[in-house]
Amino acid sequence: MSDPVRGDRDHLRLDAFAANVASQFGEDGIIERILAVIGECNGWCVEFGAWDGERCSNTFNLFTHKGYSAVLIEADPQRFQALARRFAENPNVLPLNAWVGFEAADNLDSLLAPTPTPTDFDLLSIDIDGNDYHAWKAISRYRPKVVVIEFNPTIPSEVEFVQHPDPRLTHGASLLSLAKLGASKGYELVAVTLANALFVERRFFPLFGLADNRLATLRSDTSLVTYLFSGYDGQVFLSGCGRLPWHDVPYRADRMQVVPAWLRRYPDRYDRLRRILARLYGRWARFRLFALSVSGRRRAVRSSRRRR
Q1: How far apart are the C-alpha atoms of 230 and 263, rounded to whole Å?
Q2: 183 near 163, Cβ under 8 Å?
Q3: Is 253 exposed, middle or buried, given 0-12, 13-18 or 19+ CB atoms closer than 10 A?
Q4: Rounded Cα distance, 89 and 193, in Å
Q5: Which candidate, 110, 96, 9, places its Cα nearest to that of 47?
Q6: Strand 187-192, strand 146-150: pairing
Q7: What would the pLDDT profile of 190-246 be if each residue is shown by its tens digit?
Q8: For residue 304, is pLDDT > 60?
Q9: pTM surpassing 0.70?
């Protein structure tokens, strides 16, 4: 009989420890177990996208119940005020009202430099709804033992996607792209929840006995992914979640058809007239796509110039 904690293989199933104190998808319990396995802890954590210090927090349990010191960073002024008021009497909480950027002047390294945070603090939690990838990539001086970072849960595990480094965008990054970034920075994936990836420094990875930490193995909840595919006749189908999860608006397959109904049949079965029309339609569609691409690049250039 298999062990429900260690699983059929001899590796630690961290999802068996999932539990929420303030976290969304069981991260509190998983984090607690990861830190226990690592053992070499200094009692410091950092979270940006901290909100009020408790809402959806991956560090609240540590600095409230486990004696941790915490640097909590929140860019939104109103949320920061709530954060600062709530923990004004807690000497272990250092609140910062700042936006964590990607350049030397505003990245996490520069924000933590005036604080007593050790360079090898235990846990970093990143949840800024968009530029998470770029914010983590920009960190070089500080090397947390554990990194918890949000990914866009609507993106399939096989897809690489990273939004442009623009604070106005909230597209996010795929799990695969974050896993590759983590590997390049010397981190290994050890657990995945619905929307967060949990990494440990590579030197600690053997402690977890994970023979297989592929995304397909660790990511069990893909309930927010919508798949798009086509029939041989060109009809587009949708499967999976089928809605925009943050807006609760359903996708409509009838509005995603790219081939007109009169061309939706297997091309080998076209008559002569449809073959001619299909070629003309294909040329028009490619030209339209090219024109839209050029227009988009021009808008991006103009936007970049305005920011400067």
Answers
A1: 14
A2: no
A3: middle
A4: 33
A5: 96
A6: unpaired
A7: 999 999 999 999 999 999 999 999 999 999 999 999 999 999 999 999 999 999 999
A8: no
A9: yes
